Amino acid sequence: MAIKIERIYTKPADLSGYRILVDRVWPRGISKEKAALDDWFKTIAPTKELRQWFNHEPEKFPAFKTRYLAEIKANPDRAAFEQLVADHAKDGDVILLYGAKDETHNQAVVLQEYLTGL
User: Fold this and answer.
1) What contacts 5, CB < 8 A, 6 or more positions away?
2) At 94, phi and psi to the nearest 5?
3) Distance, CA of 71 to CA of 42 (rounded, Å)
4) What pLDDT is attached to residue 38?
5) CA atoms of 75 and 13, how far apart (whole Å)
6) Alpha helix stretches (DSSP H) within the chain
7) What InterPro entries does this protein's entry cite (predicted)?
8) Are 97 and 10 in contact (CB under 8 A)?
9) Regions of the chain short of the pLDDT cut 70
10) What is residue 67's predicted lDDT score, i.e. its pLDDT?
11) Are residues 1 and 92 in contact, defined by beta-carbon separation less than 8 angstroms?
C-alpha cells in the first residue's frame, strides 16, 4: 500500500488509512477528535533546533532535508517508527500528517521519501 502525506488542516481529511501525526508540537486549533489520529509519533519529528533554523524557508529545504535525514538515522525511536509504518502498510495506506502551510517543503515530505526508499 501507499505512504501518503496530508496537511492536518485539509478538509475533507483522508480517513481511509492509518493516520500518524509527525509533528513535535500539536497543531493549533485542531481538537483530538477533529484530527482523527491513530497515532502521534512526535519523536520522529525534527528537533526544535532544526525546525527553528529551517523556519520553513524553501531555499533552506535542501540543507534541511540533509540534516533531518541525519537526525532520523541517529534517532533511537527510528526502528519503532519504521516498524509501526511497515505493520500498518500491510493492511492499507499510511498517512503522515503535518501542520506546516508549505505542502512541498516540510518534514513529512522528507519522511515519505525516506520510508519509500527502505
Assistant:
1) 95, 96, 97, 98, 108, 109, 111, 112
2) -115, 130
3) 13
4) 96
5) 29
6) 32-35, 48-54, 61-74, 78-89, 107-116
7) YeaO-like
8) no
9) none
10) 98
11) yes
